[in-house]
Amino acid sequence: MMPSKRVCILGSGNWGTTAARIVGANVAKLADFDDTVKIWVHEEIVDGRKLTDIINTEHENVKYLPGHKLPDNVVAVPDATDAVRGATHIIIVLPHQYIQQLLDSVHGSILPNASAMSLIKGIGISDQDMTTMTQLIHRTLAIPVSSLSG
User: Fold this and answer.
1) Is the pLDDT of residue 24 over 70?
2) Mean pLDDT across the chain, nearest whole number?
3) Does the pLDDT at position 122 exceed 90?
4) Of 14, 80, 8, which is closest to residue 42 (Cα–Cα)?
5) Distance (Å, rounded) from C-alpha 120 to C-alpha 11?
6) At 146, is the pLDDT very low, low, confident or very high (cuts 50, 70, 90)?
7) Which of 75, 91, 108, 135 is 20 to 30 Å from 142 at the Cα level?
8) Is there a contact between 4 and 88 (Cβ–Cβ < 8 Å)?
9) Are 81 and 109 within 8 A, CB to CB?
10) What is the pLDDT confidence band of residue 1, given thresholds at 50, 70 and 90?
């Protein structure tokens, strides 16, 4: 049976990298999930090397979660549209002030049957109302969204 589900993670700070460690380990055990978990990394140069290259060769996010290895099936990509392409489950975990720009950039690449989970803290405030990140994601991507908080 071919895996019918694929997970990606948008965000690679310490919380996103922690999520990638857990998700990568879990999907490797589940037959209906593709083993590869793409994590979108805002490309940075760390000690003269691209952070995506470091993550993909050393399996560690040395900038945001040093000392903690990632499973080999977690693959860092510098392009968010590449990360979401084909994903049925999208975990979104980045600072709230960057969420709208990211959502706008990936909107056309999201599968219609995808769902999302927000691990984002914060709310949007305007003159008219307050918006949770879950509401913002749902409104922008038009897919079901849940959230994890604690």
Assistant:
1) yes
2) 95
3) no
4) 80
5) 10
6) very high
7) 75
8) yes
9) yes
10) low
Sequence-separated (6 or more) residues with CB below 8 Å from residue 17: 39, 61, 64, 65, 68, 70
Percentage, residues of the chain above pLDDT 70: 99
Three-state secondary structure string covering the chain: CCCCECEEEECCCHHHHHHHHHHHHHHCCCCCECCCEEEECCCCEECCEEHHHHHHHHCECCCCCCCCECCCCEEEECCHHHHHCCCCEEEECCCHHHHHHHHHHHHHHCCCCCEEEECCCCEEECCCCEEEHHHHHHHHHCCCEEECCC
- What is the rounded CA–CA span in Å between residue 135 and residue 137? 6
- Residue 132 has φ and ψ, to the nearest 5°, of -80, 160
pTM of this prediction exceeds 0.70: yes
Residue carrying the six token digits 């290259």: 53
Angle ∠(70,61,146) on CA atoms, nearest 5 = 70
Contacts of 131-135 with CB under 8 Å at 24 or more apart are: 133/92, 133/96, 133/99
